[in-house]
Amino acid sequence: MTSPAASEPPTLVLDSTDVAPRLAREFLAKHFADWGIADDYLGRLIVCELVTNAYRHGEGPIVVRLPRDADDGRPVIEVWDAGNSRPVVRPENHAAVSGRGLRLVAEFVRDCWGVRPLAEGGKAVWAKLPGS
């Protein structure tokens, strides 16, 4: 007996523009509502930060995927772009006017995030949301 193929996670392809973060937040909010996840604030914050980084520092279209972890069902936010540069958590600098987004993501997801290269080039930055 074969098991049915796992369904593909919700996926959104965005042009790399300044409206991409808003569209990604709306996409995440819709799917979290479909899944019965009432509190989507952290997910919207994280997808916004990751998409903003892809828009500002990546290349090509931006792909947002929302898989669920196979072991515990928790949502994972993945943001892909064609750029080869890797995001870096910057040292704390109270005088900086930007550069805090990835530090916030790392703290909110309790360091359950990472970057992986894509076979076709580019990278996927992912963050697994904490459980309740």
UniProtKB/TrEMBL annotation:
Pfam families reported in the protein's UniProt record: HATPase_c_2
Domain Histidine kinase/HSP90-like ATPase: 22-127
Gene3D superfamilies cross-referenced by the UniProt entry: Histidine kinase-like ATPase, C-terminal domain
Keywords: Kinase, Serine/threonine-protein kinase, Transferase
Organism domain of life: Bacteria
Protein name: Histidine kinase/HSP90-like ATPase domain-containing protein
